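Please check our next protein.
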Amino acid sequence: MDDLTTTSGIVALVGAVLGIVALALAAVLFVQLRRVRLAQRILLGDAEPRDLIAHAAQLSEAVATLRAYVEESALRLDGRLSTAEERLDRTIAYRGLLRYDAYNEMSGRQSASIALLDATRSGIVLSSIHHRDQARLYAKHVRDGEAEIALSPEEEEAVRLALAGELQETPPET
C-alpha cells in the first residue's frame, strides 16, 4: 500500500482508472456501432455492402429516372387526351327535334325535323314529311351553323332548338 501513496503509485492508479473508463467507453461505443450497423443493414439490405452516401445517390438516381418516366407518360397521356377531345368534338353535341303537321291536317303531327350537330355546329338536319298517301325524307348538311341548302322554317326551328341545347317537341296546336 505504500506504493500507492507515492507519485508513481498515484500515476499508476490514475492510469488504471483511465484504462477502465476507456474500456467501458469502448464497450459502449461497440454496442452503439453494432446498433448502427444493424440499422444500416435493415436500410440498405444484405445484398451488397455499401455506405449510406452511395445508397442515397442510388435512390436519387432512381427518383430522377422515375420522374422522367412519369413526365414522359404525362406527355403521352396529354397527346392521347387531345386526340380524344378532338374526336369528341366531332360527335353529336347538339340535337333538336320538332314534330308538326306538314300539310295542316289533323294527322297527329306525324312529320318531324331533327337536327344533329357536333361541337362546331356542323351536322345534318333530317326531315320526314308524312301525308296520307306518301312519306318523304329530306337530309340537309349544316356546316358551322349554316345550311348548304335553304332550310324550311321547321328545320330552322330544329337547328335553333339544338343549339339552345334542348331536346323538346312543340306543344300540340289548339
Q: What stands out?
A: The radius of gyration is 45 Å. The helical segments are 7-44, 52-89, 153-163. The first helix runs from residue 7 to 44. The longest strand covers residues 135-143.
